[in-house]
Amino acid sequence: MAQHYHISSLLLLAFLNIFFIHGNISSATARHLLETPVPEIPKPELPKVPALPKFEIPTVPKPELPTIPKPEIPAVPKPELPTFPKPELPTLSKPKIPIMPKPEIPAMPKLEFPPLKKSEIPAVPKTEVPPSSEARIFNKGVQNQKN
């Protein structure tokens, strides 16, 4: 059944088991275990192993590889390109362009404009609005706050 579980879950269960088993041992039991003498167990004598003969590796003669002759590649002659004579281009005469006379531009007389009069903005007289009763109350409140 264990093959169906992941190894991490099995390790967790093993850790928890060891933790709970360790928790059951009291300090008195642990001290008692430390104070009790442990009987010495005699060491068994090991049988002598006979010496084995040294194994020698036989030398194998190095095989000689047959020499393969290099294949001779026949020399391929370089192809000679035929030389063509350089073509001569016929010389062409320069085309003559007839000279055109420059047209004369008539001089334009400078136009003079009459000076413009500066327009004056009429001054608007300041009109006084008679204060209403609400404005008087508001103005008195503002004046009281300033004082």
What's this, in brief?
The chain is mostly helical and 147 residues long. The protein is built from three helices and no strands.
Can you characterise this structure?
With 147 residues, this protein is mostly helical. It has a domain at 1-35. Helices cover 28% and strands 0% of the residues. The chain contains three helices and no strands. Residues 60-88 have a biased composition (Pro residues). Residues 60-98, 119-147 are annotated as: Disordered. This is Gamma-gliadin. Keywords: Signal. Residues 1-30 form the signal peptide.
List the topology elements.
Blueprint: H1 7-24, H2 27-35, H3 133-146
Protein name: Gamma-gliadin
Signal peptide: 1-30
Region (Disordered): 60-98, 119-147
Helix content: 25-40%
Weakly predicted, low-confidence segments? none
- N- and C-termini, Cα separation: 97 Å
Number of helices: 3
**Mean of residue pLDDT?**
78
What's the main sheet like?
none
Encode the helix/strand succession as letters.
Answer: HHH
Helix-strand category: mainly alpha
Q: Kindly provide the radius of gyration, computed on alpha-carbon positions and rounded to a whole number of angstroms.
A: 63 Å
Shape: flat
